[in-house]
């Protein structure tokens, strides 16, 4: 009964915190709300007319939605790069950033699930994913494994930070015996969510572009580059606009993680390019279409030839210690690396897998305004959720949100 009382007080105080703030805070939240409403309007059109309003066809059946889903799975998995040093290795330098990283993982997973719902056409078909009711097809289908690992990882990333913040809200220290087992489990689970997503593509033998043994490891490398890069950018914003001061050494340690992961990702990219182009076969046509165009079709060329130079530039700059320790250079590199990997793991991975089709036909894909509107709305939803979580967590960690015992 007492815990319910404390929980009710926490909810009340959190609502009070997230509804009050500076003028910049209200402008930011108002902007996100507007984008979400615009996304909902676009989604209502999709619900009414079906997926025909998107650029997807029976030949290219995965597009912008699944591209963002794949990328965001990696962003969610990247929280492990803060969880493991903090909870498992007891590195106090990561302690300030770990709750922010887990909040980012929760927001990313919510966006992942939203993109899956959008790609399915509507929420009315979700009952198929309920075990015992729908056609769940477990354990044969990799999609069912993906549903399980994503929801399991979401549960871990909600419950662990909630327990810690709930204890801090009461002025108590969190018991390591309670949250450490969950933290250790989340380390393995984070790797699993991205590997299972990679296996989804690798298991489709008719799509040779994805049938690559390096796909799983490269998914992890790119995730551990893009995710922590986004965390660094978020921490920089939090340092500038809140009283929650993140130390320089914390950001520098995360920057080292980004650097090593970006270097490994680049090496794997070079290995894939060598495999595709040194001794090309007819299975290399998807890669040719992506990088050079095929039969006069070259819709993806501007995307991939933007991503590759940005990826190389960011990795080279981050490799030099002096440049990496210059925060202006670091933030710039993290931004362009995030954009580069978003393109590479999105359009550069999903769309070419369908081109050319099984009979050699090239049907290009371009997202429509409806798809872009829904996508922006979901990203705004993620930013909205993260802002709420971060504001509440920061208030508790700074001691501004405390449980007031009534005498």
From TrEMBL:
Cellular localisation: Cell membrane
Gene3D superfamilies: Formate dehydrogenase/DMSO reductase domain
Transmembrane feature ranges: 27-46, 66-85, 97-118, 147-166, 178-201, 221-242, 254-274, 300-320, 329-355, 375-396
Membrane topology: Multi-pass membrane protein
Classification via InterPro entries: DsrP-like, NrfD-like
Major location (coarse): membrane
Keywords: Cell membrane, Membrane, Transmembrane, Transmembrane helix
Entry superkingdom: Bacteria
Family, per entry: Belongs to the NrfD family.
Protein name according to UniProt: Polysulfide reductase NrfD
Organism: Flavivirga algicola
Gene coding for it: nrfD
């Amino acid at each position: 009964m007492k815990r319910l009382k404390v929980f009710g007080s926490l909810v009340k105080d959190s609502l009070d915190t997230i509804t009050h703030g500076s003028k910049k805070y209200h402008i930011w939240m108002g902007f996100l709300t507007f984008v979400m409403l615009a996304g909902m309007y676009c989604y209502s059109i999709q619900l009414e007319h079906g997926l025909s309003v998107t650029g997807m066809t029976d030949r290219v059946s995965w597009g912008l939605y699944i591209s963002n889903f794949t990328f965001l799975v990696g962003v969610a998995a990247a929280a492990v790069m803060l969880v493991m040093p903090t909870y498992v290795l007891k590195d106090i330098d990561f302690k300030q950033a770990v709750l922010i990283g887990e909040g980012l993982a929760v927001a990313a997973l919510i966006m992942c699930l939203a993109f899956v719902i959008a790609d399915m056409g509507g929420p009315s078909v979700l009952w198929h994913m309920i075990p015992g009711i729908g056609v769940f097809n477990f354990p044969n289908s990799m999609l069912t494994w993906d549903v399980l690992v994503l929801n399991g990882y979401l549960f871990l990333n909600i419950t662990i930070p909630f327990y810690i913040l709930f204890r801090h809200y009461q002025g108590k220290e969190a018991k390591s015996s309670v949250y450490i087992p969950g933290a250790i489990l989340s380390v393995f689970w984070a790797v699993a969510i991205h590997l299972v997503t990679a296996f989804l593509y690798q298991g489709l033998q008719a799509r040779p572009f994805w049938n690559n043994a390096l796909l799983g490891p490269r998914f992890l490398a790119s995730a551990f580059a893009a995710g922590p890069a986004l965390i660094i950018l978020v921490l920089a914003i939090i340092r500038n606009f809140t009283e929650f001061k993140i130390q320089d050494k914390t950001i520098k340690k995360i920057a080292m993680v980004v650097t090593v992961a970006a270097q490994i990702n680049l090496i794997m990219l070079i290995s894939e390019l060598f495999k595709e182009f040194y001794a090309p076969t007819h299975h290399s046509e998807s890669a040719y279409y992506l990088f050079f165009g095929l039969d006069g079709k070259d819709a993806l060329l501007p995307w991939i030839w933007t991503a590759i130079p940005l990826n190389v530039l960011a990795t080279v700059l981050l490799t030099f210690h002096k440049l990496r320790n210059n925060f202006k250079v670091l933030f710039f590199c993290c931004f362009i690396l995030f954009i580069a990997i978003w393109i590479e793991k999105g359009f550069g991975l999903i769309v070419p897998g369908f081109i050319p089709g099984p009979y050699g036909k090239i049907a290009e894909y371009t997202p429509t305004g409806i798809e872009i509107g829904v996508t922006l709305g979901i990203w705004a939803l993620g930013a909205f959720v993260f802002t709420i979580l971060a504001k509440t967590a920061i208030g508790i960690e700074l001691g501004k949100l405390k449980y007031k015992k009534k005498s």
